[in-house]
Design brief:
The complex is a heterodimer. Helices cover 32% and strands 28% of the residues of chain A. Chain A is an alpha/beta fold. Chain A folds into two domains: 5-221, 3-Layer(aba) Sandwich (Rossmann fold), CATH 3.40.50; 226-289, VC0802-like (2-Layer Sandwich), CATH 3.30.2130.10. The longest helix of chain A is centred in the middle third of the chain and has 16 residues, at 165-180. By secondary structure, chain B is mostly helical. Chain B has one domain (3-272). In chain B, 79% of the residues lie in helices and 0% in strands. Chain B has helices spanning 3-17, 20-39, 50-74, 79-84, 86-91, 97-130, 135-165, 169-198, 205-212, 216-226, 229-235, 248-272. In chain B, helix 1 packs across helix 6 and helix 6 (97-130) packs antiparallel against helix 7 (135-165). Classes of the chains: A alpha/beta, B mainly alpha. The A-B interface holds A 14, 48, 51, 53-54, 74-75, 77-78, 80, 82, 84-90, 92-93, 97, 101-102, 104-107, 145 and B 1, 3, 6-7, 10, 13-14, 17-18, 84-86, 88-96, 274-275.
């Protein structure tokens, strides 16, 4: 079976500026993939390539087996939902009117629109002018138009930027629901810590190059970043604890009652086991696993940025 | 429904919603009505029909006002969408690029046409109720409305082109003002300057007529102020040159060209642009 989206050695440059450099990526139906990277890393360029708005300078892009910038591009785009970054809709129109406009452009039935507005929590505000909407509501309207016509592929550019935690949760709930229906969701974000539990796979872009791609656990294994272990122990027992785990951990900080250790992820289980035997002297244990944030910093440091 | 008509319809709806159409209709109606009410005064000695007087004076003012309104409406078409971030979204739909440009042009053109027909039509109704006039005069008034719409639409096309060739909204606004200054004010002055320097040695009337075709505002002037009958007689002083040697069909063709060519250029540029 051909993957839903496939990029093979894709490069895109604007004049001498290289926006994407030899990127290969595949994604299938039912997956949620996060595109992660700093501003200008090439996330939006990648989305434009998938939408067929620009052509690659090298390599091939296939969406649903077709070239999105080719002759059947319109057919591909009819099955895509897209939320651009920082979109501002016509302020004089109501939510219902705007959604009707985009539904007509997509040849989708208008009668599904009230349900879509309800899904993103805009049912009550549907007949108010967009000019009166808060930023979160406008973003949700943007998400609503991306949902028109039950698209098989959703491209969401920074879907949660500028949203309050409640609205963010709502966005992720919608994404989870889409995944449940078998849609492929590709979202770009800066908020690494936030998406860890929300996505299946992560693709990290740095200066137009794909520096890492895979599921979160695999990516963590790839980067030898130690986990941090914070212990609160009975007075003057730090040495006893340290003796038990010194084979796998290095000390980051210590005082008579507290201990902070760096643990190689490969020996995390051994350390936990050893600490279990010292249960009587340990009051508190806190393990901090390296997040994607730390991983991204680790990987980009190697790039000499 | 066709994407072209969906986009055009949305523009008309936006024009009606933000009261642009209403304001423009009021401006044009007020202008025409004031000319109707004042226009009958100077007719005594010349003996022209009051309708012809209104046609000539309204045409002279239309040349200044309608292009400006058209440019104000259209300069934002593409560059405004780009700045709001909705252009990318629009192009991500199953629509062709030319449909975006032409659809917006049709929407803006229709909005301006509605305002012009309503505004000048209202004045026409008042005129019909107050003064007697023959069929000839009404034909001239109908021609005035039709050509005013064409003039407006030509400048909508020019404004759309301005909106496509630049990257920022203020630049597009500046370019629109520049277009207005050039075609409405500077072109004629420059032509007049050349004529004065030339003293009739090289430039013949035919060459002048030909040069006037390169300005939609002048084409409009030629049709309405020198076309035929009473209007031409009245307009003798305000007509730009020794006009009238060109057949009316050529003039209408030139005005239509001023609609089609900028639009085609806009589509060509937009097709090559990176969104």
């Amino acid at each position: 079976m051909t993957p839903t989206i496939s990029l093979e050695h894709v490069s895109r440059s604007y004049g001498r500026l290289s926006a994407l450099d030899d990127v290969s990526l595949r994604a299938d139906a039912g997956e949620t993939v996060a595109l992660v990277g700093h501003n200008g890393a090439g996330k939006t360029t990648l989305m434009k390539l998938i939408l067929g708005l620009i052509r690659p300078t090298a390599g091939t892009v296939r969406v649903l087996g077709e070239d999105p910038a080719g002759r059947h591009g319109a057919r591909v785009r009819a099955r895509l939902g897209f939320l651009p970054e920082s979109v501002a809709f016509h302020a004089a129109m109501t939510g219902t009117e705007l959604l009707a406009f985009y539904a007509r452009l997509k040849n989708a039935p208008l009668k599904a629109n009230p349900e879509i507005l309800h899904r993103v929590g805009l049912a009550e505000a549907a007949d108010r002018r967009v000019g009166t909407y808060s930023k979160g509501m406008r973003q949700r309207l943007g998400l609503a138009q991306a949902l028109i016509g039950e698209p098989g592929i959703l491209l969401l550019d920074e879907p949660t930027s500028g949203l309050d935690p409640d609205s963010r949760r709502q966005v992720y709930e919608t994404i989870a629901e889409l995944r449940g229906r078998g849609a492929l969701v590709l979202l770009s974000t800066h908020a690494l810590a936030e998406i860890e539990r929300e996505v299946d796979r992560v693709a990290m872009l740095h200066r137009g190059r794909l520096i890492a791609a895979g599921d979160v656990a695999t990516l963590r294994r790839r980067a030898p970043i130690p986990a941090r272990l914070r212990l609160t122990v009975r007075h003057c027992t730090t040495q006893r604890v340290l003796d038990a785990v010194s084979a796998w951990a290095t000390v980051l900080a210590r005082d008579p009652e507290r201990l902070e250790l760096a643990v190689d992820p490969a020996y995390r289980a051994d350390v936990i086991h050893a600490l279990d035997a010292l249960r009587d002297v340990i009051d508190e244990v806190e393990i901090e696993s390296p997040g994607l944030e730390a991983l991204y910093r680790h990987l980009t440091r190697g790039e000499g940025s | 429904m066709n994407a072209l008509m969906v986009i055009a319809g949305q523009e008309v709806r936006a024009g009606l919603r933000n009261r642009w159409a209403a304001a423009t209709t009021l401006i044009l109606a007020a202008l025409a009505l004031s000319l109707v009410l004042l226009g009958s005064a100077p007719t005594g000695t010349v003996g022209a029909s009051p309708v012809a007087v209104v046609v000539v004076s309204l045409a002279s003012l239309t040349i200044f006002l309608v292009p400006l309104l058209a440019l104000l409406l259209s300069f934002d078409a593409i560059v405004g969408e780009a700045e709001r971030g909705t252009l990318l979204l629009l192009l991500a739909h199953p629509v062709a690029r030319w449909q975006v440009v032409v659809g917006k042009f049709l929407g803006h053109g229709a909005t301006l046409a509605i305002a012009t027909v309503a505004g000048y039509g209202a004045a026409g109704v008042l005129l019909a109720a107050t003064v007697p006039a023959d069929a000839e005069a009404w034909r001239a008034y109908g021609g005035l409305i039709a050509t005013s719409v064409m003039l407006g639409v030509a400048f909508v096309a020019l404004g759309s082109l301005a909106s496509i060739v630049v990257r920022e909204r203020p630049t597009a606004a500046g370019l629109a003002v520049g277009l207005w200054l050039f075609f409405v004010l500077l072109y004629d002055s420059a032509l007049l300057g050349v004529l004065v320097l030339d003293q009739g040695t090289v430039l013949s009337g035919g060459v002048l007529d030909f040069l006037l075709l390169f300005n939609p505002a002048d084409v409009y002037r030629l049709i309405n102020l020198s076309g035929d009958g009473a209007a031409a007689l009245l307009a003798g002083m305000s007509a730009p040159g020794d006009a009238g040697s060109l057949p009316v069909a050529v003039l209408y063709g030139a005005l239509a060209g001023w609609i089609v060519l900028p639009l085609a250029a806009g589509v060509a540029v937009f097709n090559r642009r990176h969104p």
